[in-house]
Amino acid sequence: MKGTHDALVLPEHWRFSRDTGNVGVEDGWFRPGFNDSTWLLVTVDKPWESFVGQYDGYGWYRVEFDVPPGIEGKSLVLIFEGVDEQAWVYLDGELVGERTTESTGMTPAQMWNKPFRLAIGELKPVGRHLLAVRVHDSANAGGIYKTVRVIVDE
Q1: Predicted pLDDT at 125
Q2: Three-state DSSP state, 101
Q3: How far apart are CA 35 and CA 32, in angstroms?
Q4: Average pLDDT for the chain
Q5: Bridge-partner residues for 4, per DSSP?
Q6: Is it the case that residue 92 has pLDDT exceeding 80?
Q7: Which of 31, 78, 88, 105 has CB atoms 3.0–4.6 Å from 118's, for a disulfide?
Q8: CB atoms near residue 118 (< 10 Å)
Q9: Helices marked H in 3-100 — which ranges?
Q10: pTM (2 d.p.)
C-alpha cells in the first residue's frame, strides 16, 4: 500500500430508524428502492440516544452519495471511526461486510470504540450510490457516533 487519501466526502445528514422488531433485513431496509422518507434526518457524529432517547437494540442508517469522475478503477475503502457496537454494511443493496462479535471474536465491550475498515473495491458506475448500515447496540450509547469516510486505497 503506497498511501491513502480521501476519495469522497459522505453527506453530513443520514436517515435513521430504530428497528425495534428486528425486521429491517427481512423488509429490505438496505435496498435502494426502500422508502426511508419518514425516517429521522440525523448526523453521524453522536450516539443515537442524542436524537431518539435511551435505546438499546437494532437501528439503521441510510445515506445516498455521488461517486465523482476520476476514481474509476480505484480500490475504495470505507473507514468507520466509531460505531457502537456491531455493524452490518450494505452498499447498493448488497452486504459488503460486517464488524460483529462473530466476525471479530471480540465482545461488544471490546469493539464499541475501535475504528474499522471495509474494502469495497471499485464503485461502478460513477454516480449515485446507497450506503445502509445496520447497527446493534446492547448497552449504553449506540449507533454511528463518529465520521464515516471513503478513501482510495493505493
Answers
A1: 73
A2: helix
A3: 8
A4: 91
A5: 153
A6: yes
A7: 78
A8: 16
A9: 49-52
A10: 0.93
pLDDT in tens, 30-78: 999 999 999 999 999 999 999 999 999 999 999 998 887 777 778 889 9
Q: Cis check for the bond before 125: say yes or no (omega within 30 of 0).
A: yes
Contact by Cβ (8 Å): 30, 93: yes
Q: Within 10 Å of residue 12's Cβ, how many Cβ atoms?
A: 10
Under 8 Å between Cβ of 132 and 10: no
Cβ 82 vs Cβ 115: under 8 Å? yes
Distance (Å, rounded) from C-alpha 114 to C-alpha 132? 20
Distances (CA, A) of 7 to 30, 42, 76, 98: 23, 23, 8, 21
The total of other beta-carbon atoms located within 10 Å of residue 105's CB is 9
